[in-house]
Specification:
A: 236 residues, mainly alpha, 2 domains, 10 helices, 0% strand, B: 111 residues, two-stranded antiparallel ribbon, 50% helix, 19% strand
Amino acid sequence: MLNIHSSQKQHAFMPKLATWLLSRLANPAYRDELIGDMEEEYTERQEANQEASYWLLRQTTLAIWDGQKAMIRTTGFVKALSIILCVLALPTIALFVGWLSNMHMPSEHLWQLLMAGEVHFILFNTEYWEIAWNESGVSHLDVMMFIHVQSILWAMVYAVSAYLFLKKIKPSVWIFSAFSMAYILVPYLFGYGVISLFELPPRIVGPILAFMMLAPFFTLPMSVGFLFKGFANCST
Amino acid sequence: MNQKMLGEFEQVVLLALLRLETNAYGAAIRQLLQREINRDVVLGALYSTLERMEKKGLVVSKLGEATAQRGGRPKRFFSVTAEGKAALKHAKQAMEIMWQDIVLNVGGEHA
C-alpha cells in the first residue's frame, strides 16, 4: 500500500460531486465502505502525485453502473415498475374501451387501424386522443363495458397458474414478472395475429378487440397483487 | 461433498484476502492486486464479488472503525471462511491436475 503521512501534508478530499453521486447511486449494501476506500485511495494518489482525477472518474462511473445494475435486480424496483405500468396502462385501456363502446362514425384512418387490430397505432394517434378524451371520455364509461367473459376467464387462468408457479417453482422476481408479462401480452398478440391473418368482418373483429384489451386489463392488476403477495418479504 | 466452483477472479480475491490476513479491506485488496499481478480492479466490481462470495459463505466481513482519512467512513474487513479455503484448495487441485503433462510453447519459451 502507498505510504501516507497525513499529518505532514495537506489532506486532499475527494470532490463533493463524486461523493454525492456515490452516496445516492452506488450499491447501498456497501456504499459507505466503498466511498471510504475511494476517499482513502484518492488522497493517497494525490499525495503521491499519481494520476487521481481519471482514476476517480473511472471508479465512480463504474461503481454507479454496478449500483444501478444491483438496483434493477431488486424486488422493490420490479414492484415500483409494475405500479407505474398499472397506473399508465389501466386508464389507457379504460379510455379505449369507452371510446370503442361509444364510437360514432370514426375517421377512415382510425377505422382502418381498428379493423387491422392495430390498437398500438391508434394509441399514438392524436385524433383518437382528442375524440376519446373530449367526446367519449371518462364520463361515458360504464361497468357493463368491462364485462367480457373470455377476458375474465383468461384472468382466472392466469391467477391459478401464477399461484401454482409461485408455490411449486418459487421463481425469482424477474422470472415471475416475465411469466406475468407473457399472460398480459399473449391476448393482444394473439388477437392482432388473428385479425392480421384473416380478413374478418367488423362483427367478429369487435369481440377480438375486446379480448385483446380487456384480458390485459384484468390480468395486469392481478399480476401486481401476486407480485406484492408472493414477494412480500423481499425488498432487495 | 458438493464443492463450490470458483471463478478466476474469485480465486484471485480469496488469495488476496489470505495474503492480507487481518488487513483485507477494499482499498488494500485493490492495491495488492494492482501491485502483485498488475490488475487494475474497479472497487465497485470488487465489492460486488466480495458480497456474492459472502452470500455463498466463502468469506465473512466485519466493519472497522471510521477514520478521518476516509471521510469518517468505516473499513469493511473480509476474511476467508473454512468453506472458502476448501473451495480454493479444490480449485488449486483441479488446476494442478489439468496442468499435468502440459507443455506450453509461448513465443519460443517453454512454460
